[in-house]
Amino acid sequence: MELDGVPVTPDDLSVLALVNYGHFTSMRIDGTRVRGLELHLDRLVRDCRTVFAADLDPERVRTLARRVAEAAQTPAIMRITVFDPDLGLGHPAGQTHPRVLVTLRPAAVDVPPPIRLKSVRYARDLPGVKHTGLFGTVYHRRAAQTDGFDDVLFVGPDGLVSEGATWNIAFVEDGRVTWPAAECLPGVTMRLLDAAMGRLGVEVRTASIAISGLRASCAAFITNAAVGLRSVRSIDDVELAGATGLVEALRKEYDAIEGDPL
C-alpha cells in the first residue's frame, strides 16, 4: 500500500476514512499487465476533473501502479484511489492537491457460480463517477445478503434496471445482448465486452429494461474487472434461463484479451 510511491501512514488515511471524498478505479493485474489499462487511466483523469476540478497525470499514475505491481504476487486486484489528505470537511471548496493511493487485494482464480440478485430502488450519487461514497451501496448489498441473496441490483424510481453494487449487468434473449439504458457507471469490462461481442458477431444494444417485465426465458450476466463475467441465476423470485454457451464464449474471448503493460 503506497501513497505517491511511499508507504502509507494512518495519518495519511484519516481524511479518506473520516471525510470519504475521492474517486478510484479497480483493475485486475496479471504480472504487470492490465486489460483495458487506458480505459482505467482515462476514467481516473476524467473523474479527477469532476471530483477535484484538477488535472491528473496518467503517466505518473501508471508509474506508481507499476511500482506496486512489480513487487506483488499476482493475479491481484489493484485499486487506485485519488484523494486529498488535507481536504477539510467544513471547507472542501478550497484548493485541492489530489494524491494517488495504490492498494492490492488477492484476485479470485476460480469461476464463481451463478449469482442470485435482489432488486432495490436506489441510485448512487453521481452514477457516472466511480467515487468512494459507498455507504448506500454497502448498506443495500448487506441487506440483500442478510435476506439470503448474493448481491443487490439497483432499480430506478421508474422501475428500470440500472446497475449492480459494483458491476454492470447485461440481459440475453434470442441470442441478443442488451445493456440497460439508465444512468450508471460505464464499466471498463463492459466496454471491452462490447468489442468482444463485435468480434464474435453477437448483436448488442442498449434499451430500457423494466424490473417488472423480467421473464424466465431471458438470461443475464454481470461484469466487472474482478470477476470478468458471472452468470445470473435469479433476480428476486424469477429464476432465469441459462446462457451457458454465449457466456462461455464471451468469457473465453475476454480472457484472451492481452493486457496492456503498466
Automatic annotation (TrEMBL):
It comes from the Bacteria. GO terms for molecular function: transaminase activity. Keywords: Aminotransferase, Transferase. Gene3D superfamilies: 3.30.470.10, D-amino Acid Aminotransferase, subunit A, domain 2. It holds the Pfam family Aminotran_4. InterPro entries: Aminotrans_IV, Aminotransferase-like, BCAT-like_C, BCAT-like_N, Class-IV_PLP-Dep_Aminotrnsfr. Belongs to the class-IV pyridoxal-phosphate-dependent aminotransferase family. This is Aminotransferase class IV family protein. It comes from Planosporangium thailandense.
